[in-house]
Design goal:
Layout: H1 3-11, E1 20-22, E2 30-43, E3 49-52, H2 55-60, E4 65-72
Antiparallel strand pairs: 1-2, 2-3, 2-4
Length: 74
């Protein structure tokens, strides 16, 4: 999902709602959104990969896609 798609979906929601994140796609455990930052993503499969906030590490691992990472509280 792209940021612009997320923004459009969030515009439809109550702007005072808390944001929570699921631990996994099966819905096991949940945590409130704590922070976000941008970095680089290097997929290792169709469902997971590595995130780098340091451009040197991203370059070394050949991560090319710039992404926004949402961090859960737990």
């Amino acid at each position: 999902m792209k940021v612009k798609q997320l923004i459009e979906l969030l515009k439809e929601q109550d702007q005072d709602s808390e944001v929570i994140l699921s631990k996994n796609g099966e819905g096991n455990d949940y945590s409130p959104l704590s922070d976000l930052n941008s970095g680089w993503y290097n997929p290792t499969s169709t469902w997971c990969g590595d995130f780098f906030s340091n451009s040197e590490d991203a370059e070394e691992m050949e991560a090319k896609e710039v992404v926004v990472c949402l961090w859960p509280t737990n």
